Amino acid sequence: MQLIQRFSRPQAPVYVCISRLVLVCILPLVSYAQQLPPQPEQCTFSSPGRCAAQFSKDQKGILTSPLRLRKKDLVWLAPVAAATTAAFMFDRSALGHVSTDPSRVNDFRTASNFTGIYVPVAAAGAALLGGTIRHDEHLRETGALAMTAMVDAQLLTTFIKYSADRARPSATGSTPSSGAFWPNGHSFSADSFPSGHAANAFAVAHVIADEYPGWKVKLAVYSLAAATGFERVAGREHFPSDVLVGGALGYLVGGYVFNHHSTRSKTHIAFAPMFGHGGGGVSLQISRSPN
């Protein structure tokens, strides 16, 4: 008990700093993904150079998003900050309710690999290949953008993993170092935060849901993504905050990719606070790009 107390007191400013870092990346990414017009050029099997240029441009836009932080992004700050901070605060206690039975843990880990990696990769690959063979541009675009979103999401989460260096939860129970940031000082040794599986699943889900906006499709893809997040926690691979932030980043990256590269992205929505002498409110701006 004493070990946990000594660990938990100095951790507070660390997770607050990490929360701020993630929020600074998330909030401008939301508005940036919503406002820029789509760019229809996409990478294909025959244009690897275009693919490399596209990934480079996407990462530049995502990683430099803090430079575009504006006042109206504060509309998102309060709920996102509250959810992220609360998740960090209750990580260890929440994981205390997760089973440590080796069989159950392994089952959930296997399931998370299936729903978070194999299914998204197979679905994107099948859509890309099938659309190319059948000359179905809509299906081909869906596969191409899903692949792009996965790559962009993994590049972003890997960057944050190296920056945060958070120790994963122990499969057999709580340990003093479990959940610690930079447990070995400046030597990178951990990759718990954020969850790459959750980011992957939600990035692909967002692309597919935007390409095929029916409620049945949305229910299916987001249920699969949510299941991935649950399985990563139940498999004791991640803390709840890892999954929350990973899923949020993946969702935003998926929206970024769709709005910037899909030929079907026509509607752009932006929220902004309004203040006046008589009070205040929130404005909703909806614009449509030309066909």
What does this structure look like?
This protein has 291 residues and is mainly alpha-helical. It has one domain (2-273, 280-288). 65% of the residues lie in helices and 7% in strands. The protein contains 9 helices and 2 strands, in the order αααααααααββ. The chain has helices at residues 2-35, 48-63, 74-89, 91-95, 102-134, 137-164, 196-211, 215-234, 240-261, and strands at 267-276, 279-288. It has a two-stranded antiparallel ribbon. A hairpin with a 2-residue loop joins β1 and β2. α2 (48-63) packs across α6 and α7 runs parallel beside α9. Residues 1-12, 31-40 and 267-291 have low confidence and may be disordered.
Secondary structure topology:
Blueprint: H1 2-35, H2 48-63, H3 74-89, H4 91-95, H5 102-134, H6 137-164, H7 196-211, H8 215-234, H9 240-261, E1 267-276, E2 279-288
Helix pairs in contact: 1-3, 1-9, 2-6, 3-9, 5-6, 5-7, 5-8, 6-7, 6-9, 7-8, 7-9, 8-9
Gross morphology is globular
- The beta-strand count equals 2
Mean pLDDT: 78
Strand percentage lies at 5-15%
**Strand/helix succession:** HHHHHHHHHEE
**Major sheet, described briefly?**
2 strands, antiparallel
Distance between the termini: 63 Å
- What is the number of helices? 9
Oligomer description: single chain
Poorly predicted runs of 5 or more residues: 1-12, 31-40, 267-291
Number of domains: 1
Helical residues, percent = 55-70%
* Lateral arrangement of strands in the main beta sheet: 1-2
Radius of gyration: 20 Å
Secondary structure class reads mainly alpha
Put the structure in a nutshell.
It contains nine helices and two strands. The chain has helices spanning 2-35, 48-63, 74-89, 91-95, 102-134, 137-164, 196-211, 215-234, 240-261, and strands at residues 267-276, 279-288.
